[in-house]
Specification:
This protein has about 1000 residues and is α/β, with parallel strands linked by helices. It starts with a strand and ends in a 41-residue tail after the last helix.
Length: about 1000
Amino acid sequence: MTSLAVGTPPLPQPPEPVTPTPTPPEPRERAAAPEADHPRVELAGVVVDLMDQPAAVGSIIGRAVQPPGAWRGEEEKALPPLAVVSANLDHLVQFGRTGRWRRTLGDSLHPTTTDVDGTTRPLNWSILLDGAPLVARAERLTGRSWPRLAGSDLADPVLDAAERAGVSVGFLGGSYVVQRLLSRRLARTRPGLEVAGMWSPDRSVLSDDAASLSLAADIAEAAPQILFVGLGKPRQELWISRYGPATGANVLLAFGAVVDFLADAVPRAPRAVADRGLEWAWRLAREPRRLARRYLLDDPPGLLQLRRDSRSLPRTDPPEVRQSPPVRSANAPAASPAAPHAGGSPTPSPAGISGPAGGGGTGRFVAPGRSAEVAVLVVTHDSADDVEALVASLRAEARTTRVRVVVADNSSTDGTLDALGRHRDVVVVPTGGNLGYAAGINLAARHAGDVEALLVLNPDLRVGPGAVTELLATLRRGEADLVVPRLIDAEGATRHSLYREPTAGTVVGDALLGMRWPLRPGAVAGTDRAPESYQFAHEIDWATGAAVMVSAGAAARIGPWDERYFLYSEETDYFRRARDLGLVARFEPRATMTHDGGGSGDSPRLRALQAVSAIRYARAHMSAPAARAVRAGVVLGEALRSHRPERRGVLARVADEARWDTLPGPSADPDPDAVLADFPRGSVIIPAHDEAAVIDATLAALAPVAATGRVEIVVVCNGCTDDTAARAAVDGVRVVEIAVASKTAALAEGDRVAALWPRVYLDADTVISPVALRGLLESLTGPVLAARPAFRYESGPASPVVHAYYRARRRLPSTSAALWGAGVYALSEAGHARIGTFPEVTADDYLVDQAFAAHEKRVVPGPPVPVRTPRDLRSLRAVLRRQHRGPAELRARADDAGSRPAGGSARATAVELAASVRGPASFADAVAYAWLAAGARTGNRPTGTGRGAAPPAWERDESNRVRADRSVERNSAEVRSWR
């Protein structure tokens, strides 16, 4: 960094006539505030002060004439420093309502504060009108013309006024050579101007927090009253917002290339060009490589935003600007009235918590049942190498903040539980399987207790000193509802952990460009790699889920993390739902954590899962055309990288949706003891007709649950002619026999003898793990009246046609959302009341599915229930005839009642089937599906549906009725940790 300071002239100066320095105004004049009643407009979310040039210069000099740094003392009439910004179209794009730096700066109605040097200091703002489109819009809103007040136009009048008033000035920005030129020119043209100094910092200085503070201290020592800051947009505004008050300057002017213009190093556009609003074209023609992106890519969307989102503001006095003495920042400051513009929802402290400190200096974690400030939620899976360092770093935080640590362990086998067992004040919650990152967070959150905020952390993190305190302070100031820290690697380099909301443009841009052109426009880049994004606090779209603090109130509004994302995209979904509620997420660089990374593994299956999760997210939150474009972009990206060894097989898995359920997903622990404690109450009703070949395996999976005494299991043998009843008569199972061979009669009898709610209706050949059963029972709360677990088809040694049919079926979106097809569903008491007694229909699960709206039913993520498909074509046809007859019966019943069911039609299925075709293989599968479905429909034409008609035969799959114990297939052990 090069600095030129007054006291030792930087260059020999030619003799000039000396002009006496004017006497500064009296203190009464120094305290005068700027004009209060000037009009204002809001342009794309930016409040702009409308005034002419004399008024603007007067407001600047009026604030500048007080002694340098006077506002930092306790003088009653001293005013805070004033930051002045010229707002052009680029400013709206950067700082407007939809800009990356939205709500980072203040304005004349919303002062801000900064405590970068440990002392909370205020900062007033004035944003002036610049740029032809903004001038035109302001004229249209107010009905009168306003001048452009570009920084380059204001610089000379401000310097003239400063010379007359004896106000000292300084210049920050520009090259050393240009500053030498400016120094000579000022000495020649304004000999009475007091230049306190000139500073030409390197970019490395500006991007480093400690170096910027040192630079601000150097400036404060030189004591300029006005500091021209020409670092380029947005860096100059961001630097002022963070470090400006530390310079001691009374006025800070964010005037871009002002040093170059004042030194005549860069020519200005001809007046005729500027008057016609074409100065941008002049500059673009002179510097196309530097300015093409700004003028041709970044700024045009701002024109539309300017037109749509602008209004005139009523005249009002600005807020009181009289300065109180500076306040030394506490570890967790209370809500600051000086920063209401930052957005977010203030986080009230829970009852019983007062003051910022809570750790008592002991480093111990708060026990369950007691109030804490922060609950740290950690999800582990084979994380023995990481948890000790994480816990140690959290103990340091617990000395100043009341922290409770809750760890949800996803069936670790490497000693993680032993390592955690050495810390008796850590709450460890076994999940009963490898349920995924989101499910682990949700389980840990249930044990968070009475806290002010939740902090989700990866096990391979180390929390930097004061990081928890800084994050909590951000929530308490009301600046955000969710806040994330700066992540660094083991060498101290910043990790790129901030991301933009996924769009078709960002996905395709990442697919085509990857790491090339890292600072490309945000419209075609999913990852934010701009250095300033990791230096300054600002609002974000979303960040990695490795470290996220959310206020307890916001967490309650957002709801649980979506467990349908086993790994990847769960944080994207969480931040998206938060934004949809109007909540604010913020990046806080003062909180730093070390993230080693790589804990999730890097196998092709995990890469495929990451890509598939992105597609699932798009389908959940975007329109159908946009989601298709995202899928195409994801597939394109994998195709372009398929030659890499680490990507081998990824493209095939991503492109073929029939293979998605072979990717890593939730699995149950073979030892269910971890999930049996406090098992939810309920009933399991199993209708069984000659199921001796399969009932043993079904009941064996339920035996641990039956032993708890909290779930009643009822097997209803309906018309059995084998030894099903004898086999089912085991401890914890109640067997009921009825003479009629009817599934619905068996369901009704099971309801008659069962006493507990909710109720799970389970086919006799369906094996459900205790983990999946627990999730199913716990899901029936609030508006959810009916649910089923996730399931997975197991075709095994089936014929090629059977495989083709079920591959096509996996690709149909409707099958993933419906309650039928899993061999198991559950009803709450209120849900069952809507159905009443099960009618005599073939498809009871289809009936249940049609009885509830989408928000009343749920597919519960978790270890999937295996559904074994028929092995041969004959068995498949029999099953399909039964499945198609069920909806036909319901339609006939609805016709008799004068209504129509809300279920899907053959036409809707055909549309889904056609949309699932992605190539020759999926086309062949779709043909097989259509052929078999059509055959089942034509084979089900009713011969009689009235009373007295003979009930049709109950077709079932006999190809899988073999007596063999089956266990739930465990998921691959590739997933070592999370993130």
